[in-house]
Write a structure and sequence with these properties.
Strand 5 and strand 6 form a beta hairpin. The protein contains 6 helices and 6 strands, in the order H-H-E-E-E-E-E-E-H-H-H-H. Strands 1, 2, 3, 4, 5 and 6 form a 6-stranded antiparallel β-sheet that branches. With 181 residues, the protein is of the alpha+beta class. The longest helix has 20 residues.
Length: 181
C-alpha cells in the first residue's frame, strides 16, 4: 500500500474531464460507470479505460469522516482466459474536495496466480539442495508472473489509479465539496 497527496492530479483530472459527471446520461462511459458506482450504488462491467484496459467497477462505499469523506471500492481488471486482477482502494477526500489519502491493494490474477499454483518453489529448493528456500523462490515466481503479465497486458495499474481519481471527483461533486466543482 502507499499513501499520496493527489491534489494536483485531482485538479488536472477535473480540468481535463470538465468535472465529474452530475447525472447518469452525461459524459463518457467511464464517468457514467463511476457515477453509478458512487451515487446509484450499482456495478458496471467491462468499462474501457485508458490504453484499452477494461475494468469491472464495483459499487463504492462512501462514509463521512470528521474531515470529509472516505470512499472504499474495488475494480476488477478484466483478463481474457485468466482470473481477473482485483484492485482495492481507499481514498479520503477533505472538505475542499482534495484527495488527501490514496491506499491501494492488488490481488493479482492472470499468470501470477497460475504460476504460484505450480510446485516450482519446492522444485527449486530440491534442485538447489536447500540453498534457495521456497519463500525466496515464491517471491521470484511472483516477480516473473508480474513481468509476464505486464508484457501481455501492459501497465494496467496506472489506468486503475485514474479511475480512482475519477471516483474522488464524483464523491466531491456529489457531496458538493470544494469550490472548483
Amino acid at each position: 500500500m502507499f499513501t499520496r497527496t493527489l491534489s494536483a492530479i485531482l485538479v488536472a483530472a477535473s480540468l481535463v474531464s470538465g468535472g465529474a459527471t452530475t447525472h447518469a446520461n452525461a459524459g463518457s462511459k467511464l464517468e457514467n460507470a463511476v457515477y453509478k458506482a458512487v451515487v446509484k450504488q450499482k456495478s458496471t462491467k467491462r468499462v474501457r479505460a485508458s490504453r484499452g484496459h477494461e475494468f469491472n467497477i464495483k459499487k463504492v462505499s462512501v462514509s463521512r469522516t470528521p474531515t470529509g469523506y472516505l470512499a472504499k471500492g474495488q475494480l476488477s481488471h478484466h483478463l481474457s482466459f485468466r482470473k481477473d486482477d482485483q484492485y482495492y482502494y481507499t481514498i479520503e477526500i477533505n472538505r475542499s474536495g482534495v484527495i488527501t489519502r490514496f491506499d491501494e491493494k492488488i490481488n493479482r490474477g492472470g499468470f501470477t496466480t497460475t504460476l504460484l499454483k505450480l510446485p516450482v518453489g519446492e522444485l527449486i529448493k530440491a534442485k538447489s539442495k536447500g540453498k534457495v528456500d521456497a519463500k525466496t523462490s515464491k517471491a521470484g515466481i511472483e516477480a516473473a508472473g508480474r513481468w509476464l503479465g505486464s508484457k501481455l497486458d501492459g501497465n494496467w495499474e496506472a489506468a486503475a489509479r485514474k479511475i480512482v481519481v475519477v471516483v474522488g471527483l464524483q464523491v466531491a461533486k456529489s457531496r458538493r465539496l470544494g469550490t472548483r466543482f
